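Morning!

As promised:
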Amino acid sequence: MIVEYEVGDEKVFLLRRIVEIRFKKDIYEKLLKKYPKEYIISFSDRKRILHHTTGRELIYITKESGIPLLGHSAFGLIDRGTNLIQIRPITGCNLNCIFCSVDEGRKSVTKVTDFIIDPDYMIDWIKRVSEFKGKGVEAHIDGQAEPFLYPYIIELIEKMREIKEIEIISVQTNGTLLNEKMIDELEGKMDRINLSISALDEELANKIYGCKYPLKKVIEVAESIANSKIDLLIAPVWLPGINDREIEKIVEFALEIGAGKRYPPLGIQKYIPYRGGRKLKNIMTFKEFYDKLRDLEKEYGVKLILKPKDFGIERRDRYPSPITRGDIISSRIISNGRNKGEKITVAKGRVISVITNKKVGEYVKYRIIRSKDGIFVGEEI
Ligand code: SF4
Protein backbone atom coordinates (compact mmCIF):
# COMPACT_ATOMS: atom_id res chain seq x y z
CA MET A 1 0.00 0.00 0.00
CA ILE A 2 2.32 2.77 -1.27
CA VAL A 3 0.98 6.14 -2.43
CA GLU A 4 3.41 8.38 -4.30
CA TYR A 5 3.25 12.11 -5.00
CA GLU A 6 5.44 15.21 -5.24
CA VAL A 7 5.69 18.21 -2.91
CA GLY A 8 7.90 21.11 -4.08
CA ASP A 9 11.30 19.67 -4.94
CA GLU A 10 10.62 16.38 -3.14
CA LYS A 11 9.35 13.00 -4.26
CA VAL A 12 7.20 11.45 -1.51
CA PHE A 13 6.21 7.81 -0.92
CA LEU A 14 3.52 7.24 1.71
CA LEU A 15 3.49 3.78 3.29
CA ARG A 16 0.44 2.51 5.18
CA ARG A 17 -0.83 6.09 5.49
CA ILE A 18 1.75 6.93 8.20
CA VAL A 19 5.38 6.61 7.02
CA GLU A 20 6.48 9.34 4.61
CA ILE A 21 9.68 8.61 2.70
CA ARG A 22 11.01 11.74 1.01
CA PHE A 23 13.78 12.22 -1.56
CA LYS A 24 15.04 15.34 -3.32
CA LYS A 25 13.58 14.87 -6.80
CA ASP A 26 16.92 15.19 -8.62
CA ILE A 27 18.56 12.63 -6.31
CA TYR A 28 15.64 10.22 -6.73
CA GLU A 29 15.80 10.51 -10.52
CA LYS A 30 19.55 9.77 -10.52
CA LEU A 31 19.04 6.73 -8.27
CA LEU A 32 16.23 5.50 -10.48
CA LYS A 33 18.62 5.16 -13.39
CA LYS A 34 20.60 2.59 -11.37
CA TYR A 35 18.12 0.83 -9.06
CA PRO A 36 14.49 -0.32 -8.96
CA LYS A 37 12.06 1.90 -7.03
CA GLU A 38 11.50 -0.63 -4.18
CA TYR A 39 15.24 -0.94 -3.63
CA ILE A 40 15.62 2.86 -3.41
CA ILE A 41 12.74 3.19 -0.92
CA SER A 42 14.11 0.44 1.32
CA PHE A 43 17.85 0.95 1.22
CA SER A 44 18.83 4.40 0.06
CA ASP A 45 20.51 6.55 2.72
CA ARG A 46 19.57 9.70 0.90
CA LYS A 47 16.00 9.88 2.17
CA ARG A 48 14.07 11.55 4.97
CA ILE A 49 11.51 9.50 6.90
CA LEU A 50 8.65 11.46 8.44
CA HIS A 51 5.49 10.81 10.44
CA HIS A 52 2.72 11.68 8.00
CA THR A 53 0.39 13.05 10.72
CA THR A 54 2.85 15.16 12.70
CA GLY A 55 5.44 15.94 9.99
CA ARG A 56 8.27 15.06 12.41
CA GLU A 57 11.26 12.78 11.87
CA LEU A 58 10.10 9.17 12.32
CA ILE A 59 12.37 6.48 13.69
CA TYR A 60 11.44 2.91 12.84
CA ILE A 61 12.50 0.64 15.69
CA THR A 62 13.26 -2.97 14.79
CA LYS A 63 15.15 -5.76 16.53
CA GLU A 64 18.19 -4.81 14.42
CA SER A 65 18.09 -1.19 15.65
CA GLY A 66 19.47 -2.37 19.00
CA ILE A 67 16.97 -0.16 20.87
CA PRO A 68 15.38 -2.06 23.78
CA LEU A 69 11.67 -1.53 24.42
CA LEU A 70 11.95 -0.79 28.14
CA GLY A 71 13.15 2.52 29.52
CA HIS A 72 11.33 5.21 27.54
CA SER A 73 8.03 6.87 28.42
CA ALA A 74 6.95 7.46 24.82
CA PHE A 75 7.47 4.08 23.17
CA GLY A 76 7.81 0.42 24.05
CA LEU A 77 6.47 -0.99 27.32
CA ILE A 78 5.89 0.56 30.73
CA ASP A 79 5.64 -1.57 33.87
CA ARG A 80 4.44 0.36 36.91
CA GLY A 81 4.51 -2.64 39.24
CA THR A 82 1.02 -4.08 38.60
CA ASN A 83 -0.55 -6.71 36.34
CA LEU A 84 -1.17 -3.97 33.75
CA ILE A 85 1.48 -3.41 31.08
CA GLN A 86 1.28 -0.21 29.04
CA ILE A 87 1.98 -0.88 25.36
CA ARG A 88 3.18 2.08 23.27
CA PRO A 89 3.82 1.07 19.64
CA ILE A 90 3.80 4.55 18.07
CA THR A 91 4.05 8.22 18.98
CA GLY A 92 2.22 11.14 17.36
CA CYS A 93 -1.39 12.25 17.45
CA ASN A 94 -3.92 13.59 14.97
CA LEU A 95 -5.45 15.98 17.56
CA ASN A 96 -3.96 18.92 19.47
CA CYS A 97 -5.91 18.87 22.74
CA ILE A 98 -5.50 22.05 24.77
CA PHE A 99 -5.02 19.89 27.89
CA CYS A 100 -2.62 17.32 26.38
CA SER A 101 -0.28 16.13 29.12
CA VAL A 102 2.44 15.35 26.57
CA ASP A 103 2.02 18.30 24.16
CA GLU A 104 1.18 16.02 21.22
CA GLY A 105 -0.09 16.73 17.72
CA ARG A 106 1.15 18.80 14.82
CA LYS A 107 1.02 21.95 16.99
CA SER A 108 3.46 20.54 19.54
CA VAL A 109 6.26 22.92 20.49
CA THR A 110 8.37 20.40 22.41
CA LYS A 111 8.34 17.17 20.39
CA VAL A 112 10.92 16.76 17.61
CA THR A 113 10.98 13.03 16.90
CA ASP A 114 8.41 10.26 16.52
CA PHE A 115 8.91 6.53 16.91
CA ILE A 116 7.18 3.47 15.47
CA ILE A 117 7.96 -0.11 16.48
CA ASP A 118 8.04 -3.18 14.29
CA PRO A 119 5.13 -5.40 15.45
CA ASP A 120 7.19 -8.62 15.72
CA TYR A 121 9.79 -6.88 17.84
CA MET A 122 7.04 -5.38 20.01
CA ILE A 123 5.55 -8.84 20.53
CA ASP A 124 8.95 -10.28 21.61
CA TRP A 125 9.10 -7.76 24.45
CA ILE A 126 5.42 -8.07 25.38
CA LYS A 127 5.92 -11.85 25.70
CA ARG A 128 9.02 -11.40 27.81
CA VAL A 129 7.37 -9.01 30.30
CA SER A 130 4.04 -10.92 30.36
CA GLU A 131 5.81 -14.19 31.18
CA PHE A 132 7.57 -12.42 34.03
CA LYS A 133 4.26 -11.02 35.35
CA GLY A 134 2.37 -14.31 35.19
CA LYS A 135 -1.34 -14.98 34.71
CA GLY A 136 -4.04 -12.30 34.44
CA VAL A 137 -2.12 -9.55 32.61
CA GLU A 138 -3.94 -6.58 31.11
CA ALA A 139 -2.18 -5.26 27.99
CA HIS A 140 -3.25 -1.63 27.72
CA ILE A 141 -2.36 0.12 24.45
CA ASP A 142 -1.96 3.84 25.06
CA GLY A 143 0.81 6.34 24.70
CA GLN A 144 1.98 9.74 23.72
CA ALA A 145 -0.10 9.05 20.66
CA GLU A 146 -3.36 8.05 19.10
CA PRO A 147 -2.86 4.24 19.02
CA PHE A 148 -5.02 3.72 15.92
CA LEU A 149 -2.40 5.62 13.89
CA TYR A 150 -0.29 2.47 14.30
CA PRO A 151 -0.66 0.71 10.96
CA TYR A 152 -0.10 -2.76 12.47
CA ILE A 153 -2.59 -2.39 15.32
CA ILE A 154 -4.83 -5.33 14.35
CA GLU A 155 -1.80 -7.58 13.79
CA LEU A 156 -0.41 -6.52 17.17
CA ILE A 157 -3.69 -7.24 18.97
CA GLU A 158 -4.06 -10.64 17.27
CA LYS A 159 -0.54 -11.63 18.30
CA MET A 160 -1.08 -10.40 21.86
CA ARG A 161 -4.19 -12.59 22.05
CA GLU A 162 -1.93 -15.62 21.58
CA ILE A 163 0.14 -14.79 24.68
CA LYS A 164 -1.30 -17.00 27.39
CA GLU A 165 -0.61 -14.61 30.30
CA ILE A 166 -2.62 -11.80 28.66
CA GLU A 167 -6.22 -11.95 29.81
CA ILE A 168 -7.44 -8.45 28.92
CA ILE A 169 -6.55 -6.21 25.98
CA SER A 170 -7.65 -2.60 26.22
CA VAL A 171 -6.89 0.64 24.41
CA GLN A 172 -7.06 4.38 25.12
CA THR A 173 -8.22 6.24 22.02
CA ASN A 174 -9.68 9.54 20.87
CA GLY A 175 -11.91 7.48 18.56
CA THR A 176 -11.52 9.74 15.53
CA LEU A 177 -9.90 7.01 13.40
CA LEU A 178 -12.37 4.26 14.28
CA ASN A 179 -15.41 3.24 12.27
CA GLU A 180 -17.99 0.47 12.28
CA LYS A 181 -15.88 -1.83 10.10
CA MET A 182 -12.90 -1.54 12.45
CA ILE A 183 -15.10 -2.13 15.48
CA ASP A 184 -16.39 -5.33 13.82
CA GLU A 185 -12.80 -6.33 13.21
CA LEU A 186 -11.87 -5.65 16.85
CA GLU A 187 -14.80 -7.63 18.27
CA GLY A 188 -13.60 -10.81 19.95
CA LYS A 189 -10.02 -9.46 20.05
CA MET A 190 -10.29 -6.25 22.09
CA ASP A 191 -11.90 -6.34 25.54
CA ARG A 192 -12.28 -2.66 26.39
CA ILE A 193 -12.02 0.67 24.61
CA ASN A 194 -11.46 3.76 26.75
CA LEU A 195 -12.83 6.53 24.57
CA SER A 196 -11.98 10.13 25.41
CA ILE A 197 -14.90 12.47 24.74
CA SER A 198 -14.65 15.78 26.61
CA ALA A 199 -17.45 17.79 24.96
CA LEU A 200 -20.70 17.11 23.14
CA ASP A 201 -20.99 20.66 21.83
CA GLU A 202 -19.34 20.94 18.42
CA GLU A 203 -17.87 24.42 18.78
CA LEU A 204 -16.47 23.67 22.21
CA ALA A 205 -15.11 20.32 20.99
CA ASN A 206 -13.21 22.08 18.18
CA LYS A 207 -11.70 24.42 20.78
CA ILE A 208 -10.79 21.66 23.24
CA TYR A 209 -9.28 19.35 20.60
CA GLY A 210 -7.40 22.16 18.84
CA CYS A 211 -8.66 21.21 15.38
CA LYS A 212 -11.80 20.49 13.36
CA TYR A 213 -13.06 17.63 15.52
CA PRO A 214 -15.36 15.01 13.96
CA LEU A 215 -17.86 15.01 16.85
CA LYS A 216 -20.70 13.29 14.98
CA LYS A 217 -18.39 10.48 13.89
CA VAL A 218 -17.02 9.94 17.42
CA ILE A 219 -20.57 9.80 18.81
CA GLU A 220 -21.42 7.12 16.24
CA VAL A 221 -18.23 5.24 17.14
CA ALA A 222 -19.24 5.31 20.83
CA GLU A 223 -22.67 3.92 19.97
CA SER A 224 -21.19 1.18 17.78
CA ILE A 225 -18.79 0.09 20.53
CA ALA A 226 -21.63 0.07 23.09
CA ASN A 227 -23.64 -2.15 20.73
CA SER A 228 -20.74 -4.56 20.23
CA LYS A 229 -19.25 -7.13 22.62
CA ILE A 230 -16.42 -4.70 23.41
CA ASP A 231 -16.67 -2.87 26.72
CA LEU A 232 -16.87 0.91 26.41
CA LEU A 233 -15.52 3.32 29.01
CA ILE A 234 -16.07 6.99 28.23
CA ALA A 235 -13.21 9.03 29.64
CA PRO A 236 -13.70 12.81 29.57
CA VAL A 237 -11.14 15.18 31.03
CA TRP A 238 -12.80 17.73 33.31
CA LEU A 239 -11.43 21.17 32.40
CA PRO A 240 -12.75 23.64 34.99
CA GLY A 241 -14.24 26.78 33.50
CA ILE A 242 -14.24 25.16 30.04
CA ASN A 243 -16.34 21.99 29.87
CA ASP A 244 -18.11 21.94 33.28
CA ARG A 245 -21.53 21.86 31.67
CA GLU A 246 -20.50 19.11 29.26
CA ILE A 247 -19.65 16.61 31.98
CA GLU A 248 -23.27 16.00 32.99
CA LYS A 249 -24.23 15.66 29.33
CA ILE A 250 -21.45 13.09 28.85
CA VAL A 251 -22.57 11.11 31.93
CA GLU A 252 -26.13 11.04 30.54
CA PHE A 253 -24.87 10.07 27.07
CA ALA A 254 -22.74 7.19 28.45
CA LEU A 255 -25.65 5.82 30.46
CA GLU A 256 -28.10 6.24 27.59
CA ILE A 257 -26.03 4.29 25.05
CA GLY A 258 -25.17 1.53 27.56
CA ALA A 259 -21.43 2.11 28.09
CA GLY A 260 -19.80 -0.20 30.64
CA LYS A 261 -20.61 -3.90 30.62
CA ARG A 262 -18.02 -5.69 32.77
CA TYR A 263 -16.30 -2.39 33.75
CA PRO A 264 -17.60 1.03 34.88
CA PRO A 265 -19.13 3.14 32.07
CA LEU A 266 -17.22 6.34 32.85
CA GLY A 267 -13.72 7.27 33.87
CA ILE A 268 -13.82 11.04 34.42
CA GLN A 269 -10.30 12.40 34.68
CA LYS A 270 -9.06 15.47 36.48
CA TYR A 271 -7.02 17.92 34.41
CA ILE A 272 -3.49 17.98 35.85
CA PRO A 273 -0.81 20.28 34.42
CA TYR A 274 2.30 18.20 33.70
CA ARG A 275 5.81 19.36 32.99
CA GLY A 276 6.15 19.20 29.23
CA GLY A 277 2.36 19.22 28.75
CA ARG A 278 -0.08 21.97 27.73
CA LYS A 279 -1.08 24.28 30.55
CA LEU A 280 -4.52 25.68 31.39
CA LYS A 281 -5.23 28.47 33.86
CA ASN A 282 -7.96 26.88 35.99
CA ILE A 283 -7.12 23.84 38.06
CA MET A 284 -9.42 22.04 40.49
CA THR A 285 -8.09 20.71 43.76
CA PHE A 286 -8.47 16.96 44.28
CA LYS A 287 -11.04 17.70 47.01
CA GLU A 288 -13.15 19.82 44.65
CA PHE A 289 -12.89 17.15 41.96
CA TYR A 290 -13.93 14.25 44.18
CA ASP A 291 -16.74 16.31 45.81
CA LYS A 292 -18.14 16.99 42.32
CA LEU A 293 -17.87 13.33 41.36
CA ARG A 294 -19.66 12.35 44.58
CA ASP A 295 -22.52 14.75 43.75
CA LEU A 296 -22.80 13.27 40.25
CA GLU A 297 -22.70 9.74 41.63
CA LYS A 298 -25.69 10.58 43.85
CA GLU A 299 -27.58 12.27 41.04
CA TYR A 300 -27.08 9.54 38.43
CA GLY A 301 -26.61 6.44 40.60
CA VAL A 302 -23.38 5.53 38.82
CA LYS A 303 -19.91 4.80 40.20
CA LEU A 304 -17.53 7.60 39.17
CA ILE A 305 -14.79 7.43 41.80
CA LEU A 306 -12.80 4.51 40.51
CA LYS A 307 -10.08 2.37 42.05
CA PRO A 308 -7.56 0.09 40.30
CA LYS A 309 -9.48 -2.93 41.64
CA ASP A 310 -12.55 -1.86 39.59
CA PHE A 311 -10.42 -2.89 36.60
CA GLY A 312 -8.88 -5.98 38.20
CA ILE A 313 -5.54 -4.22 38.64
CA GLU A 314 -3.34 -5.55 41.44
CA ARG A 315 0.24 -5.14 42.57
CA ARG A 316 2.84 -7.41 40.95
CA ASP A 317 6.65 -7.48 41.00
CA ARG A 318 8.31 -5.05 38.63
CA TYR A 319 10.42 -6.33 35.77
CA PRO A 320 13.97 -6.02 37.16
CA SER A 321 15.63 -2.67 36.56
CA PRO A 322 19.42 -2.67 36.04
CA ILE A 323 19.74 1.14 36.39
CA THR A 324 19.21 3.36 39.41
CA ARG A 325 19.15 7.08 40.03
CA GLY A 326 22.64 8.52 40.41
CA ASP A 327 24.32 5.89 38.19
CA ILE A 328 27.00 7.32 35.92
CA ILE A 329 27.09 5.79 32.47
CA SER A 330 28.83 6.46 29.17
CA SER A 331 27.24 5.25 25.93
CA ARG A 332 26.83 6.07 22.26
CA ILE A 333 23.96 8.26 21.05
CA ILE A 334 21.72 6.23 18.76
CA SER A 335 19.16 8.79 17.61
CA ASN A 336 17.56 12.12 18.25
CA GLY A 337 15.32 12.16 21.31
CA ARG A 338 11.63 12.74 21.65
CA ASN A 339 11.99 16.31 22.95
CA LYS A 340 14.20 19.20 21.95
CA GLY A 341 17.61 18.91 23.64
CA GLU A 342 17.29 15.15 24.20
CA LYS A 343 18.98 12.15 22.60
CA ILE A 344 18.39 8.39 22.75
CA THR A 345 21.07 6.05 23.99
CA VAL A 346 21.21 2.43 25.14
CA ALA A 347 22.95 0.92 28.17
CA LYS A 348 22.50 -2.22 30.29
CA GLY A 349 19.70 -3.46 28.04
CA ARG A 350 17.55 -0.34 28.47
CA VAL A 351 16.82 2.74 26.41
CA ILE A 352 17.68 6.04 28.09
CA SER A 353 16.79 9.64 27.20
CA VAL A 354 19.79 11.87 27.78
CA ILE A 355 19.73 15.66 27.98
CA THR A 356 22.66 16.65 25.82
CA ASN A 357 23.57 18.67 22.77
CA LYS A 358 25.98 16.01 21.50
CA LYS A 359 25.30 14.51 18.09
CA VAL A 360 24.06 11.10 16.98
CA GLY A 361 27.02 8.67 16.85
CA GLU A 362 29.02 10.47 19.57
CA TYR A 363 29.60 9.07 23.06
CA VAL A 364 28.07 10.88 26.02
CA LYS A 365 28.76 10.55 29.74
CA TYR A 366 25.71 11.16 31.93
CA ARG A 367 24.20 10.80 35.36
CA ILE A 368 20.78 9.14 35.73
CA ILE A 369 18.47 11.81 37.16
CA ARG A 370 15.23 9.88 36.81
CA SER A 371 14.64 6.19 37.36
CA LYS A 372 10.97 5.63 38.11
CA ASP A 373 8.68 2.89 36.79
CA GLY A 374 11.57 1.67 34.65
CA ILE A 375 11.76 4.97 32.75
CA PHE A 376 15.23 6.51 32.61
CA VAL A 377 16.44 10.04 32.03
CA GLY A 378 20.10 11.06 32.16
CA GLU A 379 21.85 14.41 32.15
CA GLU A 380 25.22 14.92 30.51
CA ILE A 381 28.09 15.49 32.94
S1 SF4 B 1 -5.79 12.76 21.94
FE1 SF4 B 1 -4.45 12.37 23.67
S2 SF4 B 1 -2.34 12.33 22.81
FE2 SF4 B 1 -3.70 13.28 21.29
S3 SF4 B 1 -3.45 15.49 21.67
FE3 SF4 B 1 -5.28 14.75 22.79
S4 SF4 B 1 -4.55 14.27 24.84
FE4 SF4 B 1 -2.75 14.42 23.51
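The mean pLDDT is 97.

Hope this helps with the figure draft.
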